[in-house]
Amino acid sequence: SLRAMASPPLEEHVFLVESFELIEQFGKQFQDKLCGADMCVERDHGCQHSCVSIPGSFYCECNPGYRLNVDGKTCSPIDACADGRHGCEHQCVSTRGSYSCRCHAGYYLNQDKRTCTMIDYCSFGNHSCQHECVSIPNGHYCRCRSGFTLQADSKSCRATDLCNGVDHGCEFKCVSAEGSYHCICPEGQQLQADGKMCNKCGAGHVDLVMVIDGSKSVRPQNFELVKQFVNRIVDLLDVSPHGTQVGLVQYSSRVRTEFPL
C-alpha cells in the first residue's frame, strides 16, 4: 500500500524500518526532502567550479569546456584535439571545450576552416623576375627559361653559352643562340649536312697557277702578306688529282716554278 501511494522513485520515498531505533537514521533524510535543504550551502562541498544540490545530497559540475575528474570535485580542460578527429590539415589548437585549425607559416586557412593553401607570393606583383617566379612557403625565387642562366642578382637571365658547356663538334666555330647553338664555316666554305663539318670550294674544278713577285723590292713583311693570301685561297679549294690543281710560280731576276699543278 505504501509503494502504491508513494511518488517515484520508490527507493527514495519508501523506507521499511525494522525497529524504532532505526527511525532516527531517516529523520535527517525526511527533513531534507520536506524542507528542501540546499546541501551545497550547508556543506563544504569542495567543488572546483559549481555545486548542484539534489534532495539529500549534491554533486559537482564543471564549466563548459571542462570535464569532471575522478575525484568528483576538480575539473580539467577538455583537449578537443587529442582524439584525432579534428580534421585539421596542419595544426589543431585546443580551446575550452573546442578547437581551431591553424596553418604553418606561408599558408592560409581555407573557408572550410580545416585545410590550408600555400600563399602565392608571386601573385603580389613585386617579384621583379625577368622570366618566371616560383612561389615557395615563406617566399619565392626567380627561374629562367630553358637556355638561360640566372644572374648574380637572382632576378635577371642571360642566354647560356652552350658552346662552352657542350661538345659541339664544330670544325671551325660554334655560335651560341637562345637555348641552342650552331656551327659556322669560314667565308667561302659551306656547312655540310651534318651541321658541323665545312665543305671546301669544290663546285668548279680548275687548274690554278698563281704567280707572285719574290724580288727584294716587295720587302719581307709584304711578302708574308702575299703568302698568307695564297694559303687562304688554297685552303678554300678541294685540291685533288680529280678536283682543283694548284701550281705556284715565283719571279724576280728569274722565273722559278715552286711546284707544278
Automatic annotation (TrEMBL):
- Its predominant location is secreted
Record domain VWFA: where: 207-261
Supply the alphabetized keyword list. Answer: Disulfide bond, EGF-like domain, Extracellular matrix, Repeat, Secreted, Signal
Where, subcellularly, is it found?
Secreted, Extracellular space, Extracellular matrix
**PROSITE patterns assigned to the protein according to its UniProt record, in alphabetical order:** EGF_2 (PS01186), VWFA (PS50234)
Please give the SUPFAM superfamilies that the UniProt record associates with this protein.
Answer: Growth factor receptor domain (SSF57184), vWA-like (SSF53300)
Q: Which SMART domains match?
A: EGF (SM00181), EGF_CA (SM00179)
Which Pfam family name is an example for this entry? VWA
Q: Name any one GO molecular function.
A: calcium ion binding
PANTHER family recorded for this chain?
A: FIBRILLIN-1 (PTHR24050:SF27), PA14 DOMAIN-CONTAINING PROTEIN (PTHR24050)
Q: Which family does it belong to?
A: Belongs to the fibulin family.
Q: What is this protein called?
A: MATN4 protein
Name of the coding gene: Matn4
